[in-house]
Amino acid sequence: MADLTIRTERTDSDAIVSVGGDLDYDSHGRLEQALDAALDGGPPSGLVVDLADVTYCDSCGLRVLLGAQARARDVGATFVLQGAQGQPARALKLTGLDQVFG
To answer: Domain 5-101 is in which class?
Structure first.
């Protein structure tokens, strides 16, 4: 099990949240807080979530991503999910969420 790492940076228009490790029941709350913080205050034009370094994602992690997409839409920001590979990419495909996130 790999500990979850989260790094947030802002560009002129976007908030970019880079995630690594295991996104699961034990760690999903940390990501949820980080994504909420990225959208709080002056919301960005876009919220980009980079999963390139995520090694595992369960249903709790998928729920957090869906919630972040909805919250971004509610504040008028775009939502981009990028970099999913390996097991997280398979989880997105098996659930059909790869089509939801585009």
So the answer is: alpha beta
- Identify the three-state secondary structure at position 11: coil
**What tokens were used for 93?**
């495909």
Give the full edge-to-edge strand order of the sheet including 14-23: 5-10, 14-23, 46-57, 78-82
Cα 80 from Cα 16, distance rounded (Å): 9
Structure confidence by residue, pLDDT tens digits, 25-58: 999 999 999 999 999 977 789 999 999 999 999 9
0.90 surpassed by pTM: yes
Q: Write the CA distances from 61 to 2, 27, 93, integer angstroms.
A: 14, 8, 14
| Residue 19: both structure tokens together | 């995630």
Task: Kindly tell me if the per-residue pLDDT of 1 is higher than 80.
Answer: no
Q: Measure the CA dihedral 50/48/24/59, to 10°.
A: -120
